[in-house]
Design brief:
By secondary structure, the protein is mainly beta. Helices cover 9% and strands 55% of the residues. The radius of gyration is 30 Å and the shape is globular. The two termini are 55 Å apart.
Amino acid sequence: MLNTKRNLLSVALASAITLTATGVHAQTVDDEAKAKPKAEATELDTVTVTGIRRGIESAISVKRDSSSIVEAISAEDIGKLPDVSIAESIARLPGLAAQRVAGRAQAISVRGLSPDFATTLLNGREMVSTGDNRSVEFDQYPSELISGVTVYKTPDAGLVGQGLSGTLDMQTVRPLSYSERVIAVSGRYQKNSLGEAAGEDPYGNRLNFSYVDKFADNTIGLAIGISHSEMSKQENQVGLYEPWQAIGDNWRPGVAAGTFYSDGIKALRRTGNAKRDGVMATLQFRPNNSWTSTLDTFYTKAKEHDTANQMEIHLGDYNGTNDPDKIRLDVTDVVVNGNGSFVSGTAHNVYPLIRGMYNNREDTIKAIGWNNEFTFGDVRVVADVSWSKAERDELNLENNLQLLPAPMLDSVKLNFAGGKFPQFTPGFDYSDYTKLYLTNTIYGSGYGKTPHVDDELKGFKLAATFPVPEGFTWFSDFDVGMNYADRSKNKTQAEGNINLGAQGITSIAADLQYKPVNLGFAGAGYIPAWNVPAAVGRYMTFNPTTTESYLIPKQWTVDEKITTTFLRANISTQIGSIPVRGNVGIQAQHVDQSSSSNYWDGSQPVGSQVIPINAGKKYLDFLPSLNLAFELPAENTIRFALARQVARPRVDELRASMEFGMDTNTGKPGSSGGNPTLDPWIANAADLSWEKYFGNKAYVAAAVFYKDLKSYIYTEKRDGYDFTDQVAEWLKVGTNAAQLQVPAQSIGYYTAPFNGTGGTLRGAELTASLPLDLFTDALRGFGVVASASFNDSDIMIKPDPANTNSVGTGPIMLPGLSKRVYNFTAYYENSGFEVRLNQRKRSDFIGEIGNFNGARTLRYVKGEDVLDAQLGYSFGDGTMFKGLSLFLQASNLTNSKYETYAGTKDRPLETVEWGRTYQVGVNYKF
C-alpha cells in the first residue's frame, strides 16, 4: 500500500490544491477582469516577463501544451540556468531525484526507478555515455549550453529512444526563434568551504559566452555557446570495511561471538580539480516556409584529477605477522549496542597504513545532428541524421606506506558513534613523512589501472505527417516513421602491480611532499600528503597489462542495432462540450544485440588459453501507447495515459565476458559473466493527472501512476546453462579428461544477469507553482514552486552476489527508489532584485557507486536534505548598466553529508562531507 506519510510540504501542497480547486481565486480574477477596460487588458498583454518568472512561465507553457504528461525547465535567459550542471536543475522537477557523486548531482532517478530505466536525449537524439552503461552522467553537460529540458513521464509512439521510467530531452537554442541578436557573457568565481589541502586550493571559476543572430533576411540563424569551468574537488570521508558480519567465537579476540563487526576503517582527505570545456553550435537555414534545415553540434571535454590521502587500519586480525610468531588482534573496552553492532573499543596490535590513492580521468563527448523538415502542402516530412561518440580514459594509482621496522603495531581507540563521523585515534604519530616508507606493506606496494571506454552511436530518422482522410473526425493528422540506431560500446581495462624500483624501500622525498592533511574530523590527526604519480614515476615500476588470466573477461564489446517503426494518430476532437487532444499509436522495435569478448582456459596449451566468445540475440517488441488530455472549464486539464514501456538492459550486463571452469569431481561446468541474450525490462503503465492552470503564470497538479513490470533483470546463479562450446574446448586437452571423476556434462551453473518476474510500482505526485500575488497584491514578487512525490513498490530483487557484502543476501527494494521526494523553491523578484531558496529532500534509498575494482556496488544511502540559495540584481533598461546582472550563490548551505550503511544505520560504511560552495558572478547581455 502506498505510504503517503505527511510532512509540512505535502500538507501545504494539498492545501494549495484544495484552495484552487474551489475556484475562489479564479472567480476573483474573473470578476476583476470583467471590471477592467479592454484597453488596459491589451496593455497587459505587452508586458515582458524576465528573470525567474520568465523561466517558470516558459516551463509551464511546455507542460500545458504537451499531449503527454511532462515536466519542464527553461532557462530564465540564454545561458542562465542557475546550476553548475544540468543535473542540478533536473533534480528540482516533480518526481525526480539526484544522487550526488563527488558533491555534484550526477545520476537522475525518475519516479523511484534507478537511472538504468530512463533514457536521455539531446535535441531529440539519444546520447552516448562515458560510463560503462547507457545512462548519461549529467555533469558532463554545462547548464549554460542548455536552453531547456523536457521530461516525458508518459511516452508516445513518435518518441524514439524512450525509457521505462521517463525520457529526458535536453534542448539547445534554436536561433531562428529569436527576434533579435543576443550576445551574453558571464563569469563566476567560487570557493569550497573545506579550504585548501594537499596543494589544491578551494577556488574555481566558470566563464561562458553565448551568441545568437540571424542573417540573410532572417533565413539563416546561428547560435554559438562556449563554456569553461574549473571546480575544486574537496572531500572529507570516513569509510568502514564491508561486510558488517556476525563474527564467530574468537574470530576477533575480545569481541563476543554474534557481534556485528567491521574488519577495517579509513579516513581520507580527497583533493583535486575538475576542468570542463564545452562548445555548442547550431546553424539553421529556412529559405522559405517549406524547408527548415538545422545543424546541431556539441562538444565537451572534461579533465579531472584527485588524490585521496588516507590512513587505513585493518581491524580483522591481520597485521602482517604469521604463525608461529603471529601476534593476534586484541580488542578491549568493547561496547556493543542493543542491535548487536560494535560501537566502540580499543584495538591493539594493528598495523596502520598511510595511502595515496590517485585518479585521473579524461572524458570527451562529440555529437552532431542534421535535421531537415520539408512541407509539401499538407504533408510534413522530417529527415534526421546523427552521430555521437564518447571516450573515457582513466589512470588509477596507489602508494602504500608504513612505519618501519615491521611490524610497528599500534593501539587505536574506536568510536563508530562518536559524532558527525565515526572516530578512530591511533597511538603513534603518523605526521612525519621521513618515518613512513614505500615498502611491501600488508596491502602490497601498490596497484594501478588504466580503464578505457568508447561509445559510438549513429542514427537516422525519417518521419512524415499526413492529414487524416475525411470522416476521421477524432484525429487531426497522423505520423509514420522509422528510426535506425547503430551503437557500439567497447571497454578495455589494463591493470597491474606497482612495484618498488631498483632503489628498494624508501621514504618519499621532500620535493614531492605537500603540507600534511588534517584528519582531525575523524580523530586521526595529521598525515603526509604527496604527489602520487610523481612518486610512482621516481620510485616504482608500473606496467599495466590486459593479458593476465583474471583480466581477460574485463575486455569486451557490445553492439546494438535497433530499428524502430511507428504509427501515431494525433487526436483533436470534442466529447460533448469537452475538447480532447492527445495521441494513440504503436511502436515496433526490432533489436539485434551482440557482444564479443574472451574467456581464459588455463588448462589449454600456452598460446591457446584465450578463447573468443561471441553471442547475441534478435527480438521484436510492440509498444502501444495512448495519451488523452481533457480540457475542462476554468483551465482545468485531466490527463490519462496508457503505454507499454521498455528499458534496454545495461550495456555492461550484455557483455559476452565469462570466467569458465570445470568441477572435475562432478563433471559439471560453471561460469560467471554477462548475458548477451537478455530481454529488456518491460512494463505496462497507467497514468492519471489533474492540472489547474492560471494562464501561464501558475498551476497546481496532482498525479498518480502505476507500472506493472512484466520482467526484471536479476544477477543470480542458475543451473541449466549450455556450455557445449566451452566444454568441447576444455576436453581437447587430454590431461583434462583424465582428471574427471565422472563424464563431463555440457549443462552447468552460470552466475550472470537473467530475466525474471517483475512486480508493481506506484506513486502519487503533488505539484504547485504559484506566484503569491495570485492571493494578494501585498505579496507581489514572491512565489513558490513545490512538489512532493510518494513512491512504493512490491518488487523485491535478489542482490547481485557481488553486492551481498553491503546489502545482504536477502531481497532488497528497487535501487534508486526513495519512497518520499520533496522539492521546494521560494523566490522573490521585484525591481531587478532576485532571491531564491531551494531545498531538495529525499528519503533513504539504495544507491549505486563504483568501487576500486571498477565494478558497480550497491549501498543503502541515508536520505539527503540539500539547501541552495541565490541572491541577484539585474540593472534595468533605464540605467547605464542595462543588461548587467550580479549574483551570489551558495550550494549545500547546510553541508549535507552523503552517508551509506550496511542494512541498519548503526552499521556505517561511508560518511562523506563535500562542504559548501559559494559563488559570486556577473552576467552581461548585450
